[in-house]
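Review box. Two proteins, two foldings.
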Amino acid sequence: MTVTAELAGLSAGYLSRIDRGLRPVQRRATLEGASLASALRVSSSEITGQPYPPLSLSEAVALSQGPGCAPSCPSYVRR
């Protein structure tokens, strides 16, 4: 928990309260970017169960490529 909190830029106590349901996440930024989702190496929708629209065209393109697939991947590798 401590390492994840440090990677996400959160205090261990705050992350623990979120984890136990004692504190709601009030800002989307806490879940995204260089925060919790990034520290856990998952998308914010995997944490919340709710999809969020891409914030930019480059993010939309990256998401459309599928996990771990660069634009140069053969089409049969892409999802």
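Next protein.
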Amino acid sequence: MGAERSPREHPTEGTAHRTERTRFQWRIDLSAVTEASWAIVGSVLLISAIYFVLAWSRVELIRDVSQPISAATGGLVTPVLIIYIPLLVVSIGVLFTWLGGLRVSDLGLERRDLRLGIAVTVIAWVLIQLAVLLSLLDAGEPVAVNRDWYTVGVLVSLGPLIGQLLGNALYEEVVIRGFLLVQLHKRVRRIWNKPGLALAAALVGSQLIFALLHIPNRLARGADWNLIPLAILPPFLIGIVLALVYYRTGNLLIAIGLHAFMNTPTLVVGPRGLGATYAVYLAVVVALGWPWFLEAATRTGLTRPTEQKRHTSE
């Protein structure tokens, strides 16, 4: 079940899988990615599907089990985080690195991305807060700090966001965007000498799988089987947006942060749904305008010109 390597697929030191350039500039280098076997690809998807079915069919049990841990941590550790930690250990620690022979860089996780990824995530959160505040003021709605911040406490308020950043969003971005999308793209690109169409096929295929993995969640929330196609359409479209964010920025941490805010915007003021909507808008803006943002980041020292060249070299 090991990974398949070719001489071209051994990256030079410090080089990540960035940049296959088409007319629209991407920052993912397929030749630098170790190709995993189909057994590894199928195993991680099968384990994810089974795990989600079991987890979402036993929501109350999971809440009961996690309640003492949540209470002991002041609400900082949530059921979402507890659910996803075993999946992360099995997928990254066992399947990808031990059995699959992959490096964390093959999954889109790079130490050098940390500073810029954190900075963009923090800036995104601030922009979402400002957008919601301006929307409330424009609509003439009352503006007040959301009650959870001072009734249940800061830790409880931050717990869901931590669960996303270190649990749900982290897992889904690593497995679907960092791993599955790139692995499918690498295979399709090898047999189909049309870069744009190859990427489109990999995008649609990987994000369709992402949407299908949300079926247990939608059923647990009361969706009827007849409405499942409509219920999983939003995850499919959001998956496309996040995949484009990753391919455009070459930084999976940015996609993780935006994904977390789409699920849990953690607003100081205003309704959660409005914050999630602005997070989606912001992801689209990042995907479209990244070259300008990257230039600004270089000027402010968040990233270095040498790193920028490495991201965009073929």
